[in-house]
Structure formats: structure tokens, C-alpha cells
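Let us practice reading a record.
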Amino acid sequence: MDKHLRRQRMPWRHFPLVIFLLFFLICSMSAISQVKPESQKVTLAGNISFSQIFQGIKKQTGFTVFYSNSLLDDSERITIKFNKVNLTEVLDVIFRGRDIAYEFRRDKVIVLDKKKEAIVRNDPSFIVSGMVYDEKKQALPGVTVRSYKTGKATMTDAAGQFKLVVAGESDSLRFSFVGFKPVAVIVGRLRNFTVGFEVATNDALNEVVVVGYGIQKKITTIGAQSSVKAEDLKQPVANLTNLIAGRVSGIIGVQRSGEPGFDNSEIYIRGISTFTSSSPLVLVDGVERPFSNIDAEDISSFTVLKDASATAVYGVRGANGVILIETKKGSSGKNRISAQVDGGVTRFTRLPQFADGVTYLEVSNEAFRNSNPSVSTPRYSQERINATANGTDPDLAPNVDWFDVIFNKYGNNRRVRVNASGGSDKAQYYLSVGYYDETGMFKTDQLAKYNSEIRFKRYNFTSNLTLNVTKTTKVDFGASGWISNGNYPGNGTGSIFNAAYVMPPITIPVKYSNGYFSQPRTGDMGNPYTMLTQSGYANRFDSQLFSNITVSQNLDIITKGLSVRGMFSFDNNNGHYISRGKSVDSYLATGRNDQGDLQFTQSSIGTNYLGYSRENGGSRQFYLESAINYNRTFNKHQVTGLVLFNRTDRVDAFAGDFNSSIPYRYMGLAGRVAYAYNNKYLAEANFGYNGSETFAPSRRFGFFPSYGVGWVASEEKFFEGIKDAVSFLKFRFTYGEVGNSQIGGRRFAYIPTVGGGGGYDYGRNNQNNSIGGLSFGDYAVDVTWERAKKYNLGIELRTWKDAVSLVTELFREERTGIFRNRGDVPWYVGIANLPWANLGAVNNKGIDATLDINKPIGKDFRLGLKGNVTWNRAKVIDDAQAPWPYPWQQRIGRKLGQRFGYVALGLFQSDEEIANSPFQAGTNKPGDIKYKDLNGDGRIDSYDQAPIGYGSLPEMVYGFGPTFSWKNWSLGAWFKGISKVDISLSGDGFRPFTYGGERGNLMAAISDRWTPDNPNPRPFYPRITYGADNMNFEGSSWWVKNGAFLRMQTVQLNYEFTRKKWLERVGMSSLDIYFIGYNLATFSGFKLWDVELGDGRGSQYPLLKTYNFGIRANF
């Protein structure tokens, strides 16, 4: 296994290409930034001052005008009227009659004195000096002062003073310092300058981001992380997991069901890197908690930690990545109240389409004839076909669209939210309540005495209170949770869908004309309508209560920058499932008597009452955390440190066995040391030392370190020349190790199980002999956590005056010690049960990137564009299984999750071709699928199965969306896409007549099939037969379809009323009216069902389109 790992090449071989592309982008953006002045239009009118004119020019064109007060008197006012006039013409007019000239330098207009211009150009250099201070009038050391003409620069000293040689009075100086707005001044006649800096409150360099067990300034972070704005999560869906994939780089995710209350998406960070659990660790307000039912309105930040530097502090739980969610807290100021109400209708994105009864009968006859060429009597007579087509006898010749019978055209949802926040310097609060109600698409029987419709209700609440007990002591209280109540049919959704797929349209009517409920007497075929409406109902009740208290103490009295924090949380989860099942008398009509009355046999005897059964579940969790933090800046040096202890105890409140009754426990230490020099050179080290009771005492704890370095290249002096084009450029690299304790299998796997004995297999013929005594069952050897080595290279770039930002991450992971049952020992060795151990290994590599463009255009219009992409590919290095006979069968070196099956070459076109082809099982005729004989032995069997397609989980997930705003209007959209994924088709309803009789519906795609009259070489269906008398429906590349799609996930139109007198009269500060559409359109070549449902036959509750209108009022 180590050899395999050493052979793997790092993805950094593409690094020179990345640098080249980055250089090309910088040069391109530099060229783009050279906007031609004559192409800029200006609209201004009125009697205004020069400063007002120049402010208008800057807003409309982006050009900043620099001038000396000795040339222009700002108290003077001039009357102008320009309507879309070129910038150069505007300047010519306002400077007309004055001894003034001007020139353009990038995005600047420099105003010059004509009389001195010639002299100025030949001015000898001279020295200027000055002082720089901040908003508090305190000196600022380390400020960069650069001459525009000479390019020479200096830095202010400890007293904030500087001296610099300039190229004359026409020169200009640029002052820049991290965290402050840059300042530019023209030298003119001044020789001594006093420059004041303003804090750049919106500067991304000052942005604070959430990291593991704390926060950091974004400029100094080294770990790979991505985030999504809380505003982007406020969509008309109940389940938060359905909004993450495609909105956050690094997330691979798909939604496999749209059923209310059961519509969780599968979420993975940078894909799957193991054979066991790949679920990420999710922390809400610092505690491990589920997040699918959190109200998006209560979220303040949503962050995804992706590499080892970001997740090492979580130790044995960090290998699959971490999601950090922080809920909103109050702030000082006036009390603020927000209320929101919205609602709308829902409908399916796409339902599978089935053939009607006539088509079913005709194709059934064709299949029967193909399988029984010597039988002249058709399976169904023409009389039966005519009766079905004409509807003359719906009792004995029905034609039922079962999906039309069980589904409504529309469902609906509604939502109400109210929150309040505010406080003083001593206390701040945030309170919110929310209600969500969704009705599903299933029909109900209005005459039934119970309700079997799908209806999901949820009540959310969040309460956060911060008390500043003293100037150095802060206490945070938090309580939140939700209660949900779901009503469902007595039979599960899966059973009802299966019945609709299995029941043909011609077998039974929904009900007979005399009111009897219909039911065939064949196997597990049920009437979908009675299963939905006449089988009782089920109720699911869930509640979650989250609570925590945190005490923070500033210890500047000991040393500046030192603080401690302690947190305790208690969470309680309860779930109850109540089933009230029943059944009805059902019948099958066998014909009519001489009087024309229907003749029946009873298929089943029903019950006249609702039964009762109950299942309970729940858990209690206690969490304790204590930490020491250090954060201090010494001149240009910033040092931060963290040491943290935590412990989690979770108890299964309704344990069903002794093992489950033992508390689940995690305990450990975490630490971080970070250093930054002048926000330019960065270094960081993290560690986690923790463990789980799942493992043997000697193997429970592990040490997981990580290291990272960063370089903010844009802060170097040599970068000043292109800083107008590229304002920020940062490189970072991290390496570390993390673990995964979710290894699957039996809990306490290191303890072997012992059982009594049946036979023992041994001998040449695998003979079974009964030997008395005991034998080992499952057992494992030195079981411990999985270990992942992770590498990450990140590049951050901002350009076009910070309007464009790009973050790109290249990553690689080497996962070892994956828990596997050894399968490489042959049976004749005589070991009945092979041991489990940490044997497997998988390598994963990929790239993710985020692009953000936000540009004001003119005074009232703003354009934005966001996008992200994630691609990964995991490769099996060791699966602890026996080698396969042929190279194409090997799993080692293949993509994790790779499909295997027969390689379809097309369809047989003649009997001669069949005779000259390798042997295939069954009766083969022209129109049957022809497979490739990979090993050349003259027969098609399991040795000819090879890799086909990509797999059910996409390798690539991406998303993008434009936003437009004009005055009080805003319009936005978001598109989500996945690619490098496919769908394997299988199952009842998809495979026609596999069981011979009337079992299995028939998809509408049956119209595209091979027949002697339509010998299409590549139809959807090959030759149709009765029963499984050939290999047409074996797993093969024929039935693997492209699963890529692009979905218009959201469209939102909003109008905001502000500053209206009628708003003020009712105490409102603003009022929004909006429309939100969700899943409105899907673009894909796959048309059988909603493409995101994935493999099989589409027999899941489809995803939903939503059309919602709402109103939001702020007080």
C-alpha cells in the first residue's frame, strides 16, 4: 500500500500553468482597466461647485479628478447642463477661459496650470515630507508612500513621518496601508503634507471569518474555506441541505427526493474519499447538531472548512470536512422588528410518463409473439384492445393512468417569520419564531374519516442573549430548536410509488362501477389508490431543543490579548412515529354472467378499524468546552494562539440493546498558533489530540497536526505598479493529517463476537462438517480511526478595483486505514469469518474555485455575478479484496464508485451476425443487445464486465447567478449544475414484461424500440420479449445514461419601499414585496424523470417547482 501511495503524483505539476494563467489574467485585467475617456458619458445639470461636478464625474465614469485649490476655487459655482456628453467635452467646457490644462493617467484626471506646465515638466526633483495619522489623530507607522512619476517609495516611521524625493510639482503621492482607504494627493506647491487615513470598513482585508473554534481576519487565514451569504439561503424550501450544493465551492451534493419532511440532500465536502461514512461534521454555534431544519432567517454565517489546516483541530472527526453555522445575535441600538409572510404553489419538476392501455396491450402482444413465434393466438385479442381504446367496459377493460389517479396537479406551502433584535451596551438580544407549512401532491379520499395526505408543519424558534456583565466579562445565552409534525399515508411513499410502477394500466380499474375496491390476486401487486387513501395514515412528531451558555473573560490585566472562554450545552432530541394502519375489502372481477353482471372473487379481507403502533427515538447530548485564547499585535507582528479542551457525551434515550445504551463519547485537546508579519507573511500550525470510546483503550487517542504558510504578494513593493489593476494577490499552502472515527460496522468492533456452532467449511470441495463448540463471529484487529493526509494550494485574487474576486484551490488527499472486511484470503485456508481491520486506502484530488463580481454602473444600477465550481476524483488504492482475473476487472486504480457492467456494442442486425458472435445466454435474435467479449473466450459472462460510465455521484458540481439592481428594484437568479455523472436504469416498470405476465408498467419511451419494421440501430429499447429469455436487461453500458443537468434553481424579483411617509406613519422603516421561483426549469438530455433522482426507475417522490409571493416589513 505504501508503494501505491508513493507512486501518486502531486497535482502541483500543473502549478506552472496556473501561474501562467494568473499572469495572463493580471495582464488582461490591467489592459481592461485602461478605460478610454472619450467613451465615457456624463449627465450633469445645475448651478454647482467644482467638487460637486467632480463627484458626479467619478460616480458616472470612475475617473477621479485631482486638482489644487490654488487653481480652482471650490466656493465658485458654475451653471452647466450636460446630457450624455463625452467626458473630454465636459472638462473642456468647465475649464474654458481658464489657464488650466488636464491629462488622463489610468483612472485619474490631473488638473495642471498651463502657465507652469512647461516649467513643471522640467522641474528638478525635490524632497517632500509629512506625517500620516488615523481617524483618532494618532500617528500611523508603516504606511507606504509612493511617487506616481518616479515609482520610488518609502514608509512612515514610528512617529508616522516620511521623506521622499518627487519629480516636481506635477507629481502625485499615493498613500496606502492595510485596513485603510488609500489616499492620493498632487504635490503642487506643497513641500510638507499632513495626511489623514479613514478605516476601510468595507475593505475585504478587514473582514473577519469564522474558523475552527474561533474567528480570524480574512487576510491572515491560511486554511481552505468557503462561505455563502445568509441572504442566499432564504429560499422557499424547508430543508437547508437542498440549497448548499452549487452555492458553496467544495460541496458535492445531490437531492434524491422531494417528499416533504424526507427531502434531505446528500452532502459531501470535496467528494467521497472512503468506503465508510463520508458525512461532514456539522457544528451549529460551536456544537455538533443537525442543520437541515434550521430556519435560514436565523443564520448569520455559513462556512465550509475543507483542508487539514482548517479541520485539524477537530482531530478524529475532521477528515470529511466541517460545516460551521453561526446563528444571529443582537447588537446595540434601537429595537428592530422584522415580519415576513409568503406562500405559493408547488408542482413536480418532472413525473415519469407511462404508456396508455392500448399501447400496453399492443406491445405486450408484440413481446409475446417475439418469445413464442410458433403461437398464432395473440396475448390480447383485438376486441380487448378496442374495448380499452373506446372505454366501453372500464371494469374489465380499464385504461388507468395511475399517476393521474394518485397525484394532484399542485401542492402548496406557506411560511411566517417574525424576529426582533436590539439592545444597549450592557445587553443585546435576538429573538425569532417561524412557521412553515407544506402540503404534498398526493390525493385523498374526501369520504374517509381520516386524512392521509402529506402535510409537513414545522415551528422554529431562536433566542440569543448577550450580557456584558463587566467591561471584561461577557455571558452569552442561547436557546433554539424546532418542532415538526408530519402526516403521511399509511403506506410509505416508496410503497405507493412501487405499486404505481408495478401495476399496468389494463389490469384493474381504480374502483369497480358497483363501488368495490379492486385488487389483483397476484403477488405483491397492490392497487395504488387504495394503498394511498384506504390504508390509514401515519404521523411523525419530532422535536429538537438546543441550549448553551458561554462565559468569556478578557485577561488583559495579566497580559494584553489574553482571554479565556468556557461553554456548556445541553441538547435534547425526541421523535415519535405513530402508525394507524387499516385495509379494505377488495375484489377482482373475473367476468360477467349471462345477465351482464360482474362476477367477483375476493382478493383480500379488510379491517373496519384503524390499528395502532408506535416507535420512539431520541437522544440527549452534553457538551463541555474550555479554551484559552491569545491575540496580540506588536508593531508589524500579529500572534494568535488557542488551547482548547472539549468533551461530548451523547445518550440514546430509547436504546434497544446494551451496546446502544452506553453513552457515545468524544474527548480531546485542540490548539492553534498563527503568526503574521505586516499582514504579508503568514504561518500557522494546528493540532487536534482526541479520541473516541469506539476504539480499544490503547488505540483511542490520536494526534493530528497541520501546518500552513501564506504570502500576500500584493503587499510587496514591487507590486505597486500593477495595484490599480490587481489590488490583492495571496498564495497559501497547507499540509496536515486528520481522522475519521465514523468507520462503519459494529460499534466496539475491537471486541469479537462469539456464537454457537453450525458447520465448518473446509476441504477441497468446501465440504461442510458439523463440529460442536463455539466460533468467532465478527472481529477486528487493532481497529482505530481512518487517517487522511491533506494538501492544499490556494490562490486569492481581487482586481478591477475590488469589483472582481477569484479564489482557486487545488487539493489532494491520501486516505488510509479505511475499515474493511478482509477479502483476499481464499476459502480453502479454512477461516470461516475473515477479520476486519484498517486496510483500505483511497486517494482524492481536485480543484474548487469561487468567482464574485460586484460592480456599480452609474448612480442607480448595480450588476453582480457569482459562480463556483468543484471537481474531484477519488481513486481506490487498496480495497483489501482478492485480485480479479483480468485487468479490466480490477478495482484498484479505478475511480471510487466506478460502475462495472457489460460493454454494449450495439444491436444484432441478423441471424448470421449472431452465429458469428461470442455466445450469449438465452435466445438471441436480431434487435437484441450485442456485448463485447473482452477476454476472447468466445462467451459473454461475468469476466467480460468492465468499467462503464462515471457513477451515481457527480464529479463536478457548479453554480452561477447574475444579480441586477436599479433603484428600489432587484432581480437575481441562480443556476445549479452537475456533470460527469450518469444514471443506471433498472427495476420494475422500466424493464417491460420481465416477469412474463401483467406485472410492471410500461414507460412511454417504449415507442422508441427496435422492431423488424423499425430496425433502428440505436433505439431506447432493444427487441421486446416476454420473460427474461435473453441478456437485454443485464447491467451494461446500454442502460447507463448521461445524468448531467443545469437547473434554474432560483429566480427572485424584489421591490423595496423606503422613506415613504405612509411607512413612517405605521412605524415601518422599509417594506419589501417579492416573488421567488424555485426549480423553475431543468436543462438535461435525460427525460424519463427528474434527472437528480438518480439510478433505478425514478420511483421516488419527485423534486418540486415552487412559485412563491411574499411581503417583508421592517420596523
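A brief commentary: Confidence is low (pLDDT under 50) at residues 1-34, 201-205.
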